[in-house]
Amino acid sequence: KVRAAVFASGTGSNFQAMMETENLACEITLLVCDKPGASVLEKAKRFNVPTIVFDPNMYSTKEEYELEVLHVLKEAKIDWIFLAGYMRIVGPTLLQAYDGKMMNIHPSLLPQFPGKDAIGQAFRAGVETTGVTVHYIDEGIDTGPIIDQVEIKVHKNDTKESLQKRIQEVEHQLYPAVINDVLSKGVKS
Ligand code: GAR
């Protein structure tokens, strides 16, 4: 079975959704976290997934911590990386090692609203439709080739919180489904 690592910095609801997907086409054998104390770490413990936690502030360059992470990924024989709320740009060290084998989920219809607080950005912009995107990683901020997108209507009485809740429910379905598609077909168009 394909061995995957999830990179996450926050709550880990997408990580949890993957772990709870019965027919996931890969085994998640490692969680990489750049925020000591993030609640995703408790979730990993609950699912018995080993973690590596690092604090980027302890390193002088991105290359330094990415080389360390890469070393662990190789030791753990990781084939694929899934970013799920990892709020950090991936550098050339990891990109070159996992070219075409790194995906991310983002809570907007990219290329609209890249970067931080995409849901807040969409809410404040007053768009009628936003959504969720799963895409491959490249060197930019949420710019890699899009694999799949789902549109979500913004309701008139939505708050940012109610919109976020609907977006995350879609994420929890979409990400495992895209992972299964990509891993079974090679590439999805
Ligand atoms: C998710 O909504 C994900 O799309 C977003 O962070 C959240 C993490 O939630 N990612 C980005 O904004 C990436 N630019 P989670 O920790 O509960 O999975």
Automatic annotation (TrEMBL):
InterPro entries noted in UniProt: Formyl_transf_N, Formyl_transf_N_sf, GART
Q: Which GO terms describe its molecular function?
A: phosphoribosylglycinamide formyltransferase activity
According to its UniProt record, the EC number is: 2.1.2.2
Alphabetical GO biological process terms: 'de novo' IMP biosynthetic process
Q: In which pathway does it act?
A: Purine metabolism; IMP biosynthesis via de novo pathway; N(2)-formyl-N(1)-(5-phospho-D-ribosyl)glycinamide from N(1)-(5-phospho-D-ribosyl)glycinamide (10-formyl THF route): step 1/1
Residue ranges of every copy of the Formyl transferase N-terminal domain listed in the record: 3-179
- For the ligand ((6R)-10-formyltetrahydrofolate), the binding residues are K62, M87, R88, I89, V90, N104
User: Entry's Pfam families?
Assistant: Formyl_trans_N
Q: Name one GO cellular component term.
A: cytosol
Which residues bear the site annotation Raises pKa of active site His? D142
Q: Which reaction does it catalyse?
A: N(1)-(5-phospho-beta-D-ribosyl)glycinamide + (6R)-10-formyltetrahydrofolate = N(2)-formyl-N(1)-(5-phospho-beta-D-ribosyl)glycinamide + (6S)-5,6,7,8-tetrahydrofolate + H(+)
Q: Report which superkingdom the organism of origin falls in.
A: Bacteria
CDD domains, alphabetized:
FMT_core_GART
Name the active site residues. Answer: H106
- Positions bound to N(1)-(5-phospho-beta-D-ribosyl)glycinamide: G12, S13, N14
This protein's UniProt keywords: Purine biosynthesis, Transferase
Its function, per the record, reads: Catalyzes the transfer of a formyl group from 10-formyltetrahydrofolate to 5-phospho-ribosyl-glycinamide (GAR), producing 5-phospho-ribosyl-N-formylglycinamide (FGAR) and tetrahydrofolate.
Per the record, the similarity remark reads: Belongs to the GART family.
Report the NCBIfam families cross-referenced here.
PurN
Q: What is this protein called?
A: Phosphoribosylglycinamide formyltransferase
